[in-house]
């Protein structure tokens, strides 16, 4: 049976997969001729010798080619076998082409039967359901401030625009469920959904039309107008996540995934039995890997959470006598739970992700509030209003808080109900912070990364002002923002991805920067959708939670051991107010080894999440992040582990015998203990349980899902920093400076007083590699901005029209709404 370790030299492509090479038998017969027996025997020997030599040459050439091919694609060299052709298909995957998404299901009902009247009736049912929900919310009490449930809610903050969209999405879902009931729709066995049906046009007082300038030098804050063919959707903020594979809802529409053959184990039971604690570190890498990964993840994903109409949190663990919110999906805690039974806890609060409006009858989708592009929106915000709040409007700089000793900190948040500020700290004049992303205060190290990049923007802005003193505030701001986004993307693809995927696979997928080959063709492919995959946001990219250690090395000089527990760093950024606070935090991340990527998690993650500090008026009982991850995947209708293995062209795991080839025996035994079928195994559990590929930190399925998403982010971005064409491009001189960027240099340039770092701060020092160097000796420590001087560049490279986004939006005439909606979605229209 073919598996990840099958060598390419043992098989040859056939019509359906790979077949073994038959042994060469030689010619079956020789045609007679008019020659003597001796001559015939001589010629026979010559012929056989010739055939033999030819065969040997063919074998040697084939072996050589196989070894060359195997060097870049075999598992043993760090690249996964999902490039192989398996699963009865002869269509090989081009490693530099994204995997095609699974086609959306067709509408399961007769479209002719769902006429205007029937559709309008179901939409009316949906509107009534929303009204009933809002009445219920008026009588509900939100979670108390500073409780673990409230802090979890704050870590998944939903902005007002997303709340409005979620209300429309809720109406659409309720309408779809109503029309399915009335037309007797039942889900077929296995993974299926109702598909996409007629369009729904809900009342909307402002229908806006985009007025895109595709020659604009700078990105729009919301990510729109990046794609000419899909300007409103491809990679933009406030759009649904993309589906790599079709969703698997228990009712085919919106209900969370359940078992196909029995009953799914509770998420908490999966966490206890499979993802128990472990303390095995990965000495090759540092916590800086996880910190930068979370920071970059927040740049491209921000799942909208269901809230009340006014944006308040929802308490799903209410008394049995009270009515539960319809969007509740709490994690069940069993009576014999070894941790929670001590606190008499039987329910872990969990609210479903907000439904995204699609404008059509169909299955539930979830909303991404962030732009998909690596554009540093985590620093600036992905709405123009947010960006304006963070700007000083003075020489392109960001608004900062200046301490008495002259240090720049992020703008302060004085909101006592933000889940972070504490009375004890505000009395001391220490507050939490504001940034481009509401999750900035989630943990101390993440806040430090926000501060680092905000300072970096201001340093760039000041230097650009010196180089081009005639530039106005807007030009300096936009150019600095463009450089920051490019440097962030370069670090992601040059330092971060090679650690995750291994350098060989990163190269094979075309994900390494082109700094060594400046003549490579233009990167942009307008057919590629860069939008974030639902499974990436809800499962695959949550792998980093396995990296988090329970204890962090907070020793200031490494001479005396000093450690801090992870849960005490959550919503606790106050040490940044101290002198060298950011230096201390960054050194902590650079000096603490991460855990291995496997199925084991620290107790700090599985018991003490958002527990708070002893001086907080909250119960000393935290949340379980693993349970929340698994529950989120089921909430989103993310299909099971075997589905994604097939989609990635990996050997199947449809039976326990097949799964034994993908995970170790101990893991398989734990999985079989609680799951009734391989078809039930959550993809999060299966993916983190796979042993890592050589040279990578995780296994083949995560390698497939992660590399495919980052390939899309590169190919589908018309503003990608390495583009060779278009007004968005950098000049060769500017790009040469961008290529010098490193996270180490960013830290050196923008910390308080860090003077020595490892060149690759996400990796630890080895015997003769990655040693400490003086900051001054880092190539990118001082970015040479002369390449941005207009006096040294052709004038046409600096011509740009900078228009504010509110001037580029026009109100669509009422008479054209129906026509354009119809052309966008097709099919019949249900207009209410």
TrEMBL record:
Residue spans crossing the bilayer: 47-69
KW Nucleus (keyword) present: no
Organism: Drosophila guanche
Organism classification: Eukaryota, Metazoa, Ecdysozoa, Arthropoda, Hexapoda
Binding site for heme b: 545
Chain positions covered by the region annotation Disordered: 813-832
GO molecular function, one term: heme binding
Protein name per the record: Blast:Chorion peroxidase
Domain of life: Eukaryota
Gene Ontology cellular component annotations, sorted alphabetically: extracellular region
Main subcellular location of this protein, as a coarse class: secreted
Residue ranges with Polar residues bias: 821-832
């Amino acid at each position: 049976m073919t598996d990840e370790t099958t060598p390419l030299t043992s098989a040859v492509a056939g019509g359906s997969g790979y077949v073994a090479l038959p042994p060469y038998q030689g010619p079956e017969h020789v045609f007679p001729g008019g020659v003597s027996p001796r001559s015939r025997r001589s010629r026979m020997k010559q012929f056989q010798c010739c055939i033999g030599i030819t065969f040997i040459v063919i074998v040697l050439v084939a072996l050589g080619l196989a070894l060359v091919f195997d060097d870049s694609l075999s598992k043993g060299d760090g690249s996964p076998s999902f490039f192989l052709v398996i699963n009865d298909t002869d269509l090989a995957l081009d490693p530099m082409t994204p995997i095609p998404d699974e086609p959306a299901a067709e509408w399961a009902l007769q479209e002719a039967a769902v006429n205007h009247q029937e559709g309008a009736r179901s939409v009316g049912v949906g509107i009534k359901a929303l009204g009933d929900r809002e009445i219920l919310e008026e009588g509900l009490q939100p979670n108390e401030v500073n409780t673990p449930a409230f802090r979890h809610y704050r870590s998944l903050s939903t902005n007002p625009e997303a709340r409005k969209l979620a209300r429309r999405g809720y109406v659409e879902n309720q309408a779809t469920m109503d029309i399915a009931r009335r037309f007797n729709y039942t889900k077929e066995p296995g993974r299926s959904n109702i598909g996409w049906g007629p369009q729904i046009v809900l009342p909307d007082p402002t229908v806006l039309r985009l007025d895109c300038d595709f020659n604009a030098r700078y990105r729009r804050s919301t990510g729109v107008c990046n794609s000419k063919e899909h300007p409103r959707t491809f990679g933009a903020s406030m759009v649904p996540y993309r589906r790599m594979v079709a969703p698997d809802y228990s009712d085919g529409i919106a209900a969370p995934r359940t078992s196909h053959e029995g009953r799914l184990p509770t998420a908490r039971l999966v966490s206890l039995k499979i993802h128990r604690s472990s303390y095995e570190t990965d000495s090759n890498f540092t916590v800086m890997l996880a910190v930068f990964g979370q920071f970059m993840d927040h740049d491209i994903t921000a799942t909208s959470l269901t809230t009340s109409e006014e944006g308040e949190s929802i308490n799903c663990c209410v008394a049995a006598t009270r009515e539960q919110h319809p969007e509740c999906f709490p994690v069940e805690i069993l009576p014999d739970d070894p941790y929670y039974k001590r606190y008499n806890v039987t329910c872990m609060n969990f609210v479903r992700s907000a439904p995204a409006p699609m404008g059509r009858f169909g299955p539930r989708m979830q909303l991404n509030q962030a732009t998909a592009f690596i554009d540093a929106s985590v620093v600036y915000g992905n709405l123009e209003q947010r960006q304006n709040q963070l700007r000083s409007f003075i020489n392109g700089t960001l608004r900062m808080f200046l301490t008495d000793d002259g240090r720049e900190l992020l703008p302060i948040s004085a909101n006592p109900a933000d889940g972070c500020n504490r009375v004890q700290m505000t009395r001391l004049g220490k507050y939490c912070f504001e940034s481009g992303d509401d999750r900035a205060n989630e943990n101390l190290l993440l806040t430090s990364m926000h501060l680092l990049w905000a300072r970096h923007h201001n340093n760039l802005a000041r230097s650009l002002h010196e180089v081009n003193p005639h530039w106005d505030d807007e030009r300096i701001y936009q150019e600095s923002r463009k450089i920051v986004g490019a440097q962030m993307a370069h670090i992601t693809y040059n330092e971060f991805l090679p650690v995750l995927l291994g350098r060989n696979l990163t190269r094979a997928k075309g994900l390494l920067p082109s700094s060594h080959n400046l003549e490579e063709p233009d990167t942009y492919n307008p057919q590629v959708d860069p939008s974030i995959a639902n499974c990436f946001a809800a499962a695959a990219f949550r792998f980093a939670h396995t990296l988090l250690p329970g204890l962090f090395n907070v020793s200031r000089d490494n001479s005396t051991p000093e450690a801090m527990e992870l849960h005490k760093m959550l919503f606790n950024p106050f040490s940044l107010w101290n002198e060298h606070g950011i230096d201390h935090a960054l050194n902590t991340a650079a000096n603490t080894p991460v855990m291995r990527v496997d199925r084991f998690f620290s107790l700090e993650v599985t018991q003490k999440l958002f527990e708070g500090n002893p001086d907080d008026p909250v119960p000393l009982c935290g949340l379980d992040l693993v349970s929340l991850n698994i529950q989120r995947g089921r909430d989103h209708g993310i299909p099971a582990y075997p589905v994604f293995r097939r989609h990635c062209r990996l050997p199947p795991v449809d039976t326990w015998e097949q799964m034994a080839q993908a995970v170790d025996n101990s893991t398989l035994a734990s999985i079989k203990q609680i799951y009734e079928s391989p078809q039930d195994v959550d993809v999060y559990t299966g993916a983190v349980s796979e042993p890592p590929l050589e040279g990578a930190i995780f296994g083949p399925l995560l390698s497939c899902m992660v590399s495919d998403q980052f390939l899309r982010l590169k190919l589908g971005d018309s503003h990608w920093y390495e583009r060779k064409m278009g007004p968005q491009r950098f000049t060769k001189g500017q790009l040469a400076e961008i290529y010098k960027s490193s996270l180490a240099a960013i830290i050196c340039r923008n910390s308080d007083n860090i003077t020595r770092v490892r060149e690759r701060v996400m990796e630890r020092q080895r015997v003769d590699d990655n040693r400490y160097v003086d900051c001054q000796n880092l190539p990118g420590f001082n970015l040479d901005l002369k390449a941005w001087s207009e006096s040294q560049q052709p004038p046409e490279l600096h011509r740009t029209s900078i228009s504010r986004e509110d001037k580029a939006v026009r109100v669509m005439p009422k008479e054209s709404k129906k026509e354009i909606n119809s052309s966008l979605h097709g099919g019949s229209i249900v207009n209410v």
